[in-house]
Amino acid sequence: MTAAAGFYEEADAPEDHPYGPYVTLDRDHWASLAATRGDKLDAATLDRLRGLGDPTDAAEVREVYLSLTDLLSLYIERTGDLFADSHRFLGLGGRPTPFVIGVAGSVAVGKSTVSRLLRELLSQLPSRPRVDLITTDGFLYPNATLDRMGMLDRKGFPESYDRHRLVQFVMDVKSGAPEVTAPVYSHLVYDIVPGEAITVSQPDILIVEGLNVLQPARRRTDGTTGLAVSDFFDFSVYVDAAHSDIRNWYVNRFLNLRETAFQDPQSYFVRYGQMSEEDAVAEAVDIWNRINGPNLELNIRPTRGRATAILRKGADHQVSWVRIRKV
Question: For residue range 88-116, what is the model confidence (pLDDT) as tens digits?
């Protein structure tokens, strides 16, 4: 730790060597940065925003997410100023384009809760912006397509998404299109819902949440590269934790689902609802070891250093330190 309490030198930063030029702040220092405004999330709202088994509480909101919201507010304000000044310089008109935030991280790390909290807190900023949230699940190829491609067991890997359609969606929103639609994914049936769509209509802020949203553009066969969805982000968050902790959270969530959603006769995973706890744990560990764990290490975690902010969780699912990109 440096002489400035709460900061870490690069060489002393927790975990491994940083992937880029970051400043790392412990939780106490990060919490002290929040503006002196009250927490406007009541217990019922917080309960609605939390994912299954997620222990995020009011203290976590005050000590972690208020500071992140305040930092985002600065980015949003300055980005809006730059838009106005550059358009004035170029002699252009038009409304500001939406501010786009990417939220990445592993299965079961809590990125959905982070995304929903940010949507709620950002919508309470003094300007009362309109905030939309989209998850990349809707851009997965349908199960029938994945089955034909031999990729049903690689669902969630980068190649299981219609990346061209996802990039086009975010590009259209960022370009100010009046209405842009996205497919709907059902976690109950584990597939795209035919004929259903989500419509996004010129929000002030768009949050894009997904496993692989920080992936760089792919190299084409001719050596050129196209666009990646992250090219349209104004700010990005990576939700991080030790591999073993995320695996444990995944297994615990699987057991919770076994007693809830997996009991629904329409659930794709209804067969797991009848398993003994011992068999369910073995199944969850097997799925993790074959699919989610390799995806984390091969595809998701390597993108961590591309994030603007990294939220590092401890084994208790609480954020222990925050890393912010300096440049």
Answer: 999 988 788 999 999 999 999 999 999 99
Please report where in the chains the tokens 């925003």 appear, as a residue: 49
Residue 3 has pLDDT above 50, yes or no: no
Q: How many CA atoms lie within 13 A of 284 on its CB side?
A: 24
User: 242: which 2 tokens?
Assistant: 């030790």
Instruction: Write a three-state SS string for the chain.
Output: CCCCCCEECHHHCCCCCCCCCEEEEEHHHHHHCCCCCCCCCCHHHHHHHCCCCCCCCHHHHHHHHHHHHHHHHHHHHHHHHHHHHHHHHHCCCCCCCCEEEEEEECCCCCHHHHHHHHHHHHCCCCCCCCEEEEEHHHHECCHHHHHHCCCHHHECEHHHECHHHHHHHHHHHHCCCCCEEEEEEECCCCEEEEEEEEEECCCCEEEEECCCCCCCCCECCCCCECCCHHHHCCEEEEEECCHHHHHHHHHHHHHHHHHCHHHCCCCCCHHHHHCCHHHHHHHHHHHHHHHHHHHHHHHHHHHHHHCCEEEEECCCCCEEEEEEECC
Which domains, ranges and CATH numbers included, belong to the chain?
Answer: 7-325 (3.40.50.300)
pLDDT value for 13: 43
Beta bridge partners of 186: 191
CB atoms within 10 A of CB 106: 25
pTM, to two decimals: 0.91
Q: Which is it for the CA torsion 185, 188, 190, 192, positive or negative?
A: negative
Q: What whole-number percentage of the chain has pLDDT above 70?
A: 92
Q: Is the pLDDT of residue 14 over 90?
A: no
Encoded tokens for 222: 């001719």
In angstroms and rounded to an integer, the radius of gyration of the C-alpha atoms of the chain is 20
